[in-house]
Automatic annotation (TrEMBL):
Residues that bind Zn(2+): C97, H100, C168
Gene3D superfamilies per the UniProt record, alphabetical: 1.10.286.10, 3.30.1130.10
Swiss-Prot/TrEMBL catalytic activity: GTP + H2O = 7,8-dihydroneopterin 3'-triphosphate + formate + H(+)
Subunit structure: Homopolymer.
Source organism of the structure: Sphingomonas canadensis
Ranges for domain GTP cyclohydrolase I: 27-204
Protein name stated in the entry: GTP cyclohydrolase 1
HAMAP family: FolE
Family: Belongs to the GTP cyclohydrolase I family.
PANTHER family: GTP CYCLOHYDROLASE 1, GTP CYCLOHYDROLASE I
InterPro entries: GTP-CH-I_C/QueF, GTP-CH-I_N, GTP_CycHdrlase_I, GTP_CycHdrlase_I_CS, GTP_CycHdrlase_I_dom
Pathway: Cofactor biosynthesis; 7,8-dihydroneopterin triphosphate biosynthesis; 7,8-dihydroneopterin triphosphate from GTP: step 1/1
EC number in record: 3.5.4.16
Class of this enzyme: hydrolase
Gene of this entry: folE
Length: 206
């Protein structure tokens, strides 16, 4: 318990991060948006909102401040000759679409067929979040995750399948809730060998 942030107790195990300063120009941009939406940014309930919105966007877009490949730098080579698929299934993620800056909420299944080395499995989810915490289109998110693993682990194959719901389609525009968009990227044996592809898709539940 000694290494918990000051003030934390059993009911507050995750300390709030320190608040970053918000430039006045950013806060003013949010006030302009509130006015444009039809409300008064000076009323009591909205006074602190511009700073909150600005910080929230820094958090949604934290991926710009990192290179997701760093998570794949530490590998393990003693795997007892393991040469089968490694799969992380149904990883929940959130992103924002670059067209409307609206939430994309979904899950990703990411698999690779190792060549001599594996990576700590949490790192696969970290790579996903590093690319998801940016303004995205689902197709590019899928490709970026797959390419990063392909390039940095040099496995025999990589398979990424992402299924997500786009708020720009559910909450506005065509307003069609319940629609899931599915994208996939198959590389190496998962692209060239039909049986390997069928096996990984079956493990993923497709
Ligand atoms: N392919 C793809 N399209 C996306 C993604 N996120 C949002 N979109 C779509 O991007 C398109 C933008 O179309 P526009 O016609 O420029 O924008 P819009 O007038 O707001 O379109 P509507 O959403 O149809 O009202 C929409 O069809 C969105 O559904 C994504 O990740 N991939
Ligand atoms: Zn959109």
């Amino acid at each position: 318990m000694a290494d918990l942030a000051e003030g934390a107790d059993d009911g507050d195990l995750i300390a709030a991060p320190a608040k970053i300063p918000v430039p006045e120009s950013v806060a003013e941009a949010v006030r302009t948006l509130i006015r444009w939406a039809g409300d008064d940014p000076e009323r009591e309930g909205l006074v602190d909102t511009p700073a909150r919105v600005a910080r929230a966007w820094k958090e949604y877009c934290a991926g710009y401040g990192e290179d997701p490949a760093v998570h794949l730098a530490r590998v393990f080579e003693e795997v007892g000759g393991y040469d089968e698929i490694v799969l992380l299934n149904d990883i929940p993620f959130q992103s924002h679409c670059e067209h409307h800056m609206a939430p994309i909420i979904g899950k990703a299944s990411i698999a690779y067929l190792p060549r001599d080395k594996v990576v700590g499995i949490s790192k696969i989810a970290r790579v996903l979040h590093g690319f998801a915490r940016r303004l995205q289109v689902q197709e590019r998110l899928t490709a970026e995750v797959a390419d990063c693993i392909w390039e940095h682990l040099q496995p025999h194959g990589v398979a990424v399948v992402i299924e997500a719901s786009h708020s720009c389609m559910t909450a506005r525009g065509v307003r069609t809730p319940g629609v899931g968009m599915v994208t996939s990227r198959m590389m190496g044996v998962f692209r060239s060998d039909e049986r390997s592809r069928a096996e990984v898709l079956k493990l993923m539940g497709y």
